[in-house]
Amino acid sequence: MGNIFRFFLCSITVSVLFGCSKFNQNVSCEDILESTYSKSSLNNFEKNKFKDLLANRYPEFDEMFQEAALENNIEKHLLAAISFQESQWDPRAKSNMGVRGMMMVTLETAALVGVEKRLNPEQNIKGGAKYFAMLIEKNKIGPTESDALSITLASYNLGPTNIFNVAKEISEDVKSVSWNQIKNKLITMKGEELNLTDKESYSRGQQAIDYVDRVGSYYKLLSAHACIAPKDQLTFF
Hints:
- It is a single chain.
- This protein is an all-alpha fold and 237 residues long.
- Helices cover 54% and strands 0% of the residues.
- The longest helix is centred in the last third of the chain and has 22 residues, at 204-225.
């Protein structure tokens, strides 16, 4: 699975975030952008907040995402989408579980990928990207690239061991287990069943499902702003 995202890098370094021109003779960048926003499952408040932060917060970190993407062979817009879902591109973000920074890196992950200062945005972005690349390489679950992408994102959110154990409950042949099968299993599970301390009424498994969906939504918006047509984007379930 380690190479499934590699070929999406070719056009990213030359894409333009704003001021799109004609994409081809039939579809303009403005058309792509308008269509993507209209089809997004995000509500209007979320869309407007995303546009505001994309214009006023993201540019400071764009080069950092680009460098991390190139170093780890992952598409820049995917990393930026993960970061927006994790922290809304706030380098000082902190969860109630003590996870910190742009990519919400844990202390354990920071030690694993060599992040010394989690509040340093460049270190955090590169550390999160390196960890995500490790998850890509290690993931053996999913019959298609789309399955593998969603499953890897769920692993970033919920932990790879938890996702692997869920897949093993479904089938010993984890390579055949789809994201939809994992979703159907996760939706019924709470924190204690996933060996997590979170025991809130909102299913922890449902949180992971929502996480994947929202990263996909933000990725599509970022790609549309960069004038990347839907047919050339990563596919999410």
